[in-house]
Amino acid sequence: MIRYPARLRPGDKIAVTSTSAGASGPGAERVEFCVDWLRAEGYEVVVGECMDGSGITSAPAEQRAAELTEMLCDPAVRCVLPPWGGETAIDLVDLLDWNALAAAEPTWLVGYSDLSTVLLPITTRLGWATIHGDNLADTPYRPPTSLLPWTALAAGAGPHVQRDSGLIANWWRFEEDAKAVEWREAGEGRWRLHGAQSLEVSGRLIGGCIETMANLAGTPYGDVAAFGEQNASDGLIVYLEAAEDEAATICRNLHGLRLAGWFDHAAAILIGRTNAGDNPKMTQEQAALDALGRLDLPIVFDVEIGHVPPHLPLVNGAMATVTVDADVHNITQGLR
To answer: Which domains does the chain have, with CATH numbers?
Structure first.
């Protein structure tokens, strides 16, 4: 059974901790602006000790795990948010106090990229709904009207309907504008359906960043096959997105997820839009089809769920319906 945290309301406390990379220089200026922005939106915001940006991580793994556990177990904290992703959040997953977390009431954990390393086991092991959406540094960016901010999903049971935005955007570098709230538009793009003429399918959402998910597969922290078995009556909608690895590496990673049973209970697969590089002999789409095409599942490409903004937040564990036809490109999520 999926357990949903209490609805997020203005006045609630949001805690910020760097589960992976910390903040320094212009990045620290962006964090300060985003914290002030959330406070202006009516939230109480506290910033943890694990924020140092001088190394590859913000603090030793034991300290980061302890701070994250404390925040998630604190009944006064309604949401935990990292400034951004990083490289090695995998080093803390086995250091979290899973017994304390299991005894606590669910708290929203929000973010993407390297944080998906933590989002996934929080959902699959504890049954907590988590939000794959903007990190703190992206939260002030105003979404297009067809998409929702993650705060809207955390605030209500839904149904939350989001549509293909048709927009490809980009960030402003912190050195250029540490206070940006409007995306830098880069072009147009649309969802593309492979393996079916049209699609209307429902299932529980689960997924994340391919480069981090591949390292969890086959461990107790990435057992999506067992999660699918537990939710076999609902089925799964598995979503994945490539951050930066070139296509042949992504192909190997996706095969690894397939062999680990990630798609055994899937009704459909969503693939996020990416700027990750092609291999000289393989595109990113070819990489996905090489690994996943044999599954005979519908695949929706170019969904706004990854390292190419704007972002379409997804709730891990939530029931969703994906509709793709000539006229409609929708994802509807219900949080109860």
So the answer is: 13-157 (3.40.50.10740), 163-334 (3.50.30.60)
